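Researcher: I'd like a structural prediction for the single chain below. Treat it as a standalone chain; there are no partners to consider.
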Amino acid sequence: MHKGVQRLEIDLDADRLDRQLGNYYFSKDLFGGPGNDCIVFPKFLKHLSLSYVNIKGYLVEQFLSNCQFIEHLCVSGSAYLEDLRVVGSSLQLKFLQISDCPWLEKVEIFAPNLVSFVYYGVSKCSEVVLLKHAPLLVKVSLGEETVSMDGAFRAVSSYFP
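Model: Treating it as a single chain, here is the predicted structure.
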């Protein structure tokens, strides 16, 4: 798994699985090194997509800090994602999608190379997304389960002329 893997996609869509089982829990043990005392990440990973995989924010953050070449990150359908910090001056991340994570409370973004950001959620974008620094951001797609999108636009409006 660690030899030159550039793309990792895990899609456990709930429509295809027995709903009684729930989502798979992504554990740090999956990438455990010798003795499982440390996490060994795929060194050359560029694309990480986790659909209907329960993962906590700190593990996503560890992927971002240990896999220096990640350009594409998608997390969808995670019931365990509550807080996520996509932060780092050396991040290569160009595409970020966070969707259908019902307990998500905060996404903090400081990503100098981010070009595209997608957020679909049950919570108001203006309450969840904290876009601190994304000077190359040119494409934004927002969706939330509310009648008005005013808050969503306010959350990102300062990044566009």
